[in-house]
């Protein structure tokens, strides 16, 4: 078991040295001097856990869960650093519970949750709730049609929808509005907007309102606040791109 763990860490280190470019399974097996079938089993486990992300054609790159295990700062640089200061300051100023999520391999990954006191509650946690979360739905609404179909097939149709077409229309409405509002069983309301980078949606930014906060805030106010926050994160991402050229 220890040997397998060491091989897994070596695989992550090897992938991390490629600057975000995919690495083929055959190359990993060659560097490890192991049988491809042995490496394939380890890679499959790492991918399912979110530490690797599979490129359909070119191989494997680091997944969202790998940033704390390797020296690579790929996701942290592109998203966490750009978002952390803005989200923390906004959560503290407005006393709101905020979260940032991404979609990888049919799974929603919450990469940051900040309490209304500006405290980091959670960072880098996988959560399969794609279709019953505000950040999951906002991310799903911007996915290509075939990706939406794959996720629908993977999880099945949510009970509150009569048909797949009904659900697809709902996603289209979310995309057109650029925000989504969900009422939760615990009497909280979840609101989310997209975060853009290079003309693509790279994350979902969400806020959770308690019943007391719902009396203080109107939906439009929260959407405006989140949209402004999303814009500042995007600006920092673009600034980082310019400085790295």
Concise synopsis of the structure shown:
The protein has 245 residues and is α+β, with helices and mostly antiparallel strands. The chain contains 9 helices and 9 strands.
Measured as a percent range, the helix fraction is 40-55%
Tell me the domain tally.
Answer: 2
Largest sheet: 7 strands, antiparallel
Total helical segments? 9
Provide the β-strand percentage band: 15-25%
**Structural classification:** alpha+beta
The CATH superfamily of the largest domain is: GAF domain
> Helices and strands, in N-to-C order?
HHHEEHEEEEHHHEEEHH
Radius of gyration: 19 Å
Number of separate strands: 9
CATH architecture of the largest domain: 2-Layer Sandwich
**CATH fold node name of the largest domain:** Beta-Lactamase
**CA(first)-CA(last) distance:** 42 Å
Let me know the average pLDDT: 84
Secondary-structure map:
Elements: H1 2-16, H2 25-32, H3 36-48, E1 52-55, E2 59-62, H4 74-94, E3 97-104, E4 107-114, E5 120-122, E6 125-127, H5 134-141, H6 145-155, H7 164-177, E7 180-183, E8 189-197, E9 200-209, H8 211-216, H9 219-244
Antiparallel strand pairs: 1-2, 3-4, 3-9, 4-5, 4-6, 7-8, 8-9
Helix pairs in contact: 1-3, 2-3, 4-9, 5-7
